[in-house]
Amino acid sequence: MLLYDQITSLNLEALTKKMSKLLKEDIPHGDPTSNTVIQPNHKGEFVFRAREKMVFCGGPIIETTFSKNINTKVLVNDGALVQKGYDLAIIKGSVREILTKERLVLNMIQHLSGISSNTAKYVHKLNNKNIKILDTRKTTPGLRVLEKYAVHHGGGYNHRLDLSSGIMVKDNHFINNNLDVIFKKLKKQKGRLPIQLEIDHIKQINSDNVNLVDGFLLDNMSPSKIKECILRINMLNKTSQQIFIEVSGGVTLKTISKFNIKGVSGISIGALTHQSRSVDIGLDIK
Q1: Residues 37 and 104 placed together within one structural domain of the fold
Q2: Residues facing 44 on adjacent strands
Q3: CATH code of the domain covering residue 105
């Protein structure tokens, strides 16, 4: 059970425009070094190569950043586990263009592969297909779709893409607001968008909200408190609707096994994206 659409593929036309825009940041007035040192008709063959073990992600980046004058051949699928020294893609064509775009492409595929590799570690550590490892909105501005795509290819799942994708009521939303009024307004939204309610104490769970929401976010709770909340939610659920129970807050690779709890639907982890380390990928002359 998932509440939100998953980013399993990329729109290549949109990605081409994105990469073109990012490239302008690096070459606002061309590349005088390559244009001076490299002859315009000089052709070459290069290989993107893994310099460490990783879960690769970024094939579409390689395919859409270079012009049609560059022959690109991606050798591994996104989501593939590769060893150090493995060839990821081969590119042939204008050395000027390849060297001009090299850094942008490397930055992107190193970053995305870092997210996929990091996500895969959490999935492997939890080792429970019934609990989804979820990303969050703690992403790099402008790169959210790509980063969530990388999470998918690391074996994780996507939480809401943006604020427009669903309703998630957190403690800050209750400031100076009448609870009865809030729930009346939420009932009007039922069925239009997924509705989630953040809970930080079991007393906040009652029959009214259990039979209203599509999911609960159990925030910063101990495993024992989480189990108590799950029991209470299931006891109060008088419908045939399955309620998504999400756990969040301070979950790390060292602690995630403690949250391998029956009844938990997903564990959201901001660190999948905002604490991932770029992996080492090089571009070598073939």
Answers
A1: yes
A2: 93
A3: 3.90.1170.20
Position 46 in a domain: yes
Claim to verify: residue 44 and residue 137 sit in the same structural domain:
no
CB atoms within 10 A of CB 84: 11
Angle at CA of residue 187, ends 183 and 188, nearest 5°: 120
Burial label, 137 (beta-carbon count in 10 A; 0-12, 13-18, 19+) = middle
For 53-101, how does the pLDDT look when each residue is reduced to its tens digit (9 = 90+)? 999 999 999 999 999 999 999 999 999 999 999 999 999 999 999 999 9
Token pair of 176 as six digits: 């100076």
Q: How far apart are CA 260 and CA 247, in angstroms?
A: 10
What is the torsion angle, in degrees rounded to the nearest 10, for the CA atoms of residue 183, residue 186, residue 191 and residue 193? -140
- Give the bridge partners for 54, in sequence order: 82
User: Cα–Cα distance between 62 and 31 in angstroms, integer?
Assistant: 19
Same structural domain for residues 143 and 205?
A: yes
Q: How far apart are CA 239 and CA 182, in angstroms?
A: 22
What are the E-state strand segments in 127-238? 132-134, 167-169, 195-199, 215-219
Model confidence, pTM: 0.95
Residue 140 in domain: yes
d(CA 111, CA 50): 13
Range of the domain at 61: 12-116+277-285
169 φ/ψ angles, rounded to the nearest 5 degrees: -90, 115
State how far the Cα of 232 lies from the Cα of 131, in Å rounded to an integer. 19
What's the total number of domains in the chain? Answer: 2
Widest Cα–Cα separation across the chain: 74
